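Hey, weird one. I pasted the APC4 protein sequence into the form twice and got a warning about non-standard characters only the second time. First submission, copied straight from the form history:
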Amino acid sequence: MTQKDITFVADFLTEHFNEAPELYNRKGKYFNVERVGQYLKDEDDDLVSPPNTEGNQWFNFLKDSTHLKESPLLFPYYPEKSLHFVKRQMEGVIDQCLQKPADVIGKSVHQAVCMSLYKISQSEDSTPQLFKLPFLWNDKTSNLHYVLFTMLENSISRIHILRRHTDTSRSVSNGILAVEFGNFLNNSINESSDSRCYSCLDAHFYDDETVTVVLKESVQQEGKERVLAQLPLS
């Protein structure tokens, strides 16, 4: 190393790495790492020491490509700016891209029907979760949209099926109905109605014609029976 090199390094250390005991207890940096820290500053000013892009394979590739050089698909490069500046630029572009679809989709959505499922007392401190298991299914063959759900509290043994036509101007019969499981698995009519009562743990559409449900025995005892049932929509 020459004396000039040593002097340059010494001057750099003196300028940027001075001891500052009064800053030791403060969060953040005690000194300035010039070439790294400049990229992290949340400022719009140009970098103090911009990177040297000479010989960079990507820039050379773009320079030699007629089609990519001015392509709107490539995010512009700002060699003089910090990462915070580039991040803000990118967020602005993304927000602009998403704004138009959000406006169009938002204006196209409207309420087709309103049905009251339950009422709760206004005096209750917290609203109980009465709506559970919403599962959506779209029957593309018949252009029907289904929602499966259960209501807690007094109706855990039944599952509700809401059916709507995908064309909101058309209606379908039995728009909403409930399937009561209760004691339908009893072996004989002599069994007590309370002896084998079932509630629904989960429910999904298996295909356009069939619903799969997972049932459990409602009695409070060990070894509750679980049943996997396939129910035809018809």
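That's the output from the first submission. The warning seems to come from a hidden character in my clipboard, not from the data itself. Helices lie at 3-16, 34-40, 57-64, 66-69, 83-108.
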